[in-house]
Design a protein that fits this description.
single chain, 365 residues, alpha/beta, FAD/NAD(P)-binding domain, D-Amino Acid Oxidase, Chain A, domain 2, 2 domains, 9 helices, 18 strands, globular
């Protein structure tokens, strides 16, 4: 008797779509993917991201479920990347928090929140306060600018664009079928007797904001990032600058490429970045390291991140065999393995034990 599994259809080939498809293919599923854009991922929020894997750092501005999913996903990323044929930059050198002297009160509040959150979530590594000498040991190029810092051990990062490309290569090698420049809605696949595909397989919607026709509480939150090539700058780990008005992150990639960002605007406007945002990001980067003065701007990008009203991700099950995975907000790379694993458990076993342990909402309609 054949044990071939029914075909799974996925709408959307962004990060969530590619990752879920990859994990399904690794389990022996036949997968077919429909994407409104092309294979380069130009319309995906995943292309405009720093891809920092920093659950404790994010705990200052997000809820505990996201932190739990981020901590779970950090180890999963290592497993997932190790099974890809193409190389993907990944490291776990921690996160460094710094601030200018005039912002020391803001930094104290930030640190107090980190300490409080780590006590509540003891599975996280405790933050370490650094004096000037200790800061110089882990990030020598910053010791002239900053007198102290906070180090968050074991937090990580990856290269978002390398990952998206490697997932695509893996899917092709595993026999996934793609339909590029082919937008589809759930209604194009639902059977009359049971939501799912007419072939008896699962239908998974990972379209982000493209899913609003069936999930009307989705909204877009605009983000802006700048990619720089700065040969004079060397950073060994992602850095966050505490600032009362424009907090900043700088994520180092390979070959002295840096992703600089922070902006978060309640808007779905995808026009070019504003002069104000650009000046603030670049000025803040320069105050962190003077070597950014001679950096070359590779690109200034904008994107709208799919967000639900509570800023938390969710899975919706429509009928028996249709799932929607959405609302990852600014935490796509931080939490996507957790979302995908919860979806696969639901598909394979009909259970949601992992989702319950991570406090991921699963809505069944």
């Amino acid at each position: 008797m054949s044990t071939k599994k029914p075909k799974t259809t996925i709408l959307g080939a962004g990060l969530m779509g590619r990752l879920t498809a990859h994990l399904l293919c690794m389990q022996g599923h036949e997968v077919e993917i429909y994407e409104k854009g092309g294979p380069d991922g130009e319309g995906s929020a995943a292309k405009v991201a720093a891809a920092m894997l920093a659950p404790l750092a994010e705990s200052v501005i997000t809820e505990p479920p996201v932190v739990r999913m981020g901590h779970y996903s950090l180890n999963r990323w290592k497993e997932i990347i190790s099974r890809l044929n193409d190389p993907v930059f990944f490291q776990q050198n921690g996160t460094l928090i710094v601030w200018h002297r005039q912002d020391s009160h803001e930094a104290k509040r930030f640190n107090d929140t980190l300490i409080s959150n780590q006590i509540k979530m003891s599975f996280l590594q405790a933050p370490q306060e650094l004096n000037k000498e200790e800061l110089n040991k882990i990030e020598p190029s910053l010791s002239t600018q900053f007198q102290q810092g906070i180090y968050l051990p074991l937090e990580g990062q990856l290269d978002n664009r390398q990952l998206m490309s490697a997932l695509l290569t893996s899917l092709r090698d595993l026999g996934a079928k793609f339909h590029w420049n082919t937008p589809k809605n759930l209604e194009d696949f639902e059977s009359t007797s049971d939501k799912g595909t007419s072939s008896g397989g699962w239908l998974i919607d990972t379209r982000g904001l493209g899913a609003r026709t069936s999930w009307d509480t989705l909204r877009g939150v605009r983000g802006e990032v700048i990619r720089l090539h700065a040969p004079e700058v060397t950073l060994s780990r992602p850095l966050r600058l505490v600032h009362p008005r424009y907090p900043l992150y700088i994520a180092p990639k390979e070959d002295h490429v840096f992703v600089v960002g922070a902006t978060e605007i309640e808007s779905e406007d995808l026009s070019n970045a504003s002069v104000r945002s650009t000046l603030e990001l670049l000025s803040a980067a320069y105050t962190v390291h003077s070597g950014f003065a001679e950096a070359r701007i590779l690109e200034i990008s904008t994107q709208a991140r799919p967000t639900l009203k509570d800023n938390l991700p969710a899975i919706r099950q429509l009928g028996v065999r249709t799932l929607q995975l959405n609302g990852l907000y600014r935490h796509g790379f931080l939490i996507s393995p957790a979302i995908a694993d919860c979806a696969l458990e639901l598909m394979n076993n009909g259970t949601q034990n992992l989702a319950d342990s991570l406090e991921l909402q699963i809505e069944k309609t």
